[in-house]
Amino acid sequence: AGRGVMILGIDGVASALVAAAFLPCVAAIGARSLITQRPPRLGLLISLIGILGVLEGGWQAGRIGLLAIEPIFIALPSLAILAALITLVSGRIIIVVSQFALIADRSTRQLRADPASTEIAAWLLLLLAGVLLLDVQSPIVGWIAFAAAAAQIHRLCEWWIGLAMRQSYVWPLHAGSLMIAIACTAIGFDGLGSSLSLSLIAHTFGVGASALVTLAVMTIAGLRHTGHDLVIPRLATAALVCVAMATLLRTIPPIHDTYFRIMLGLSAALWIAAFALYLASVAPALLRPRVDGKVG
Questions:
Q1: CB-CB contact of 212 with 176 (8 Å)
Q2: CA distance 219 to 259
Q3: Which pTM does this prediction carry?
Q4: pLDDT tens per residue, range 84-109
């Protein structure tokens, strides 16, 4: 709905309300399942979603002039919190899908993923979000960002399973963590005095890491919860590649205004195409009964 409002050129209060309504709607839809299943860190997940909702409201209010807030200064802390959520979710899923990949590849490698690595990486991102939100003017911001990037790289080293990573249910999770590391590294250099584009950093977090990991998790969950084997359809694989390409095009530094506009348009088209391909690939399975006859 948010993208539709942007494409139609609707601006002002209407677009702000549509964007601000997203998280409350998602929370309402998922509340019953979360309360019933009580996943690990439920309280933390609910708190972070609530904080994101408040920040989104502030961002939209600043964008339409209701509050004297520069939206970009809320965007980066919000995206860092979102990256922490992605870190927690991907840390659980990567263990399962990597085992599937190793079995499919007939590999003798062993996955050595320490849950503490995910916890540390997530908390460093939350610490980074805090200092960004408080607008701390100190080199400590840069060093915290570098630490957050290093934590993501450490997780990638633990996740390394060789050629089995080529599976379409594995590499997007690795790529998402790498994008988070790149964005944190850019924040680190910016915090230590190098002038970098905050917009490019934000899109590495948003268009890149969050969209890629979200789409991968939606695909994996869509298949597993409909009773299908974990074999990613070609259209879904194409969707994941489209998101990766959209991120690359959106985060290339602008050299010329015309060139930048072309890259921006291509990135937007690929991003939209990715979710259209996902729907075409996975939606039919979601709308039919489970193929294994189970309830759910």
A1: yes
A2: 33
A3: 0.86
A4: 989 988 888 888 898 888 888 887 77
